[in-house]
């Protein structure tokens, strides 16, 4: 008990020191095999698929409350973030913090029946960080508008952001996901409630942000011996309410549907995974105009550590099969589109790891947001904010200091602004992104002992 109290004091001391130190962090994502439908898409993915080199001691968690609770993720992170838009405006220069808890309350010991949850900070659909120093959305808009053209400013002034757009700070926590999960037979699962958005093998580069959410139901079948495929799932629900992360505030959307997805995934001996999905979604604009989007996505992820060059390789792509219009009478049309991303990763004896690559996301990917004027002008999109839209390269290092504490960072930069320059209305807010900081894995800190070599 004294040991646990001491550890809790350690967490509290770290949390109090974060704002004053302005030391920030962003979890390195997308290194591991894709998460299962029951796991949160927002959980950090850092484990490389390779033979185990050590046998960790039995976690104390597994001998206690694990009978009633599967705690998949429990982390605290903080980071410093600096971004510049395509016009050279310093859009963000701030410190941010994040808390995530993800898991399932189990009704039975095997966990076939339970309630899944995902608790997170952040007030937006695609941001789980909350700023605590350096200015929030008011400063962001002021910095952006200082470099905008008269044409861009005109649209910003005639259609100002919703008041909820400015709520980016504070330490509030929200239940982004809360759902009933039932496995009536082995390998078949039904979920109902506030859910994550399923990616398959695609990452948040070509799909939705890992922090995204929806309401609805999902049926997943994992019976590879009978069906060959490792996972087949069907999802129907409602995707929207981008400024309402609290599930209880948007639970009424359980009776509505604007999102349908069919996804198939296949794993090959835990070395290669592939997936493909078809998604049909009908967003609604700030003007109340409804339009439809038909999208296919595919990805392959491979463990190639024998090559001695990279440990992991992921290639992913999407195709938006139709165009549409942001306003009635085809007043603001947008075309169909496509994009892709290539990511490679390398682990240097578990003392340092890095992943990097490049992405090409079409400029009209903003159409998936349920468009408002700010999205069109500043290039705000629903995929990961470290990617956004445009052609860019990125690199993400990670340095583990202890078994529960890591330093990580991110840098991305648009290398081709030709297409953006042709659109007078577009000023991409994150043409260059830099962030650095740390993450504390509180689950490992409290319940897991370091590996014994």
Description:
The protein has 453 residues and is mostly beta strands. It has one domain (2-452): Porin (Beta Barrel). It has helices at residues 2-21, 137-145, 150-158, 224-227, 373-378, 418-422, 442-447, and strands at 55-56, 69-84, 92-106, 113-120, 130-133, 174-185, 188-195, 214-221, 231-238, 259-268, 272-281, 293-303, 312-320, 324-325, 333-334, 337-348, 352-361, 390-400, 405-416, 432-441, 451-452. The strands form 3 sheets. The protein has a 16-stranded antiparallel barrel with strand order 2-3-4-6-7-8-9-10-11-12-13-16-17-18-19-20. Strands 1-21 form a two-stranded antiparallel sheet. The radius of gyration is 21 Å and the shape is globular. Residues 1-55 have low confidence and may be disordered.
Structure summarized in a few sentences:
This protein has 453 residues and is mainly beta.
Q: What spatial form do the alpha-carbon principal axes imply?
A: globular
* Secondary-structure element order, N to C: HEEEEEHHEEEHEEEEEEEEEHEEHEHE
Secondary structural class = mainly beta
Strand content: 35-45%
CATH fold name: Porin
The N- and C-terminal alpha carbons lie at a distance of 27 Å
What Rg, in angstroms, do the CA atoms define? 21 Å
The main sheet orders its strands as: 2-3-4-6-7-8-9-10-11-12-13-16-17-18-19-20
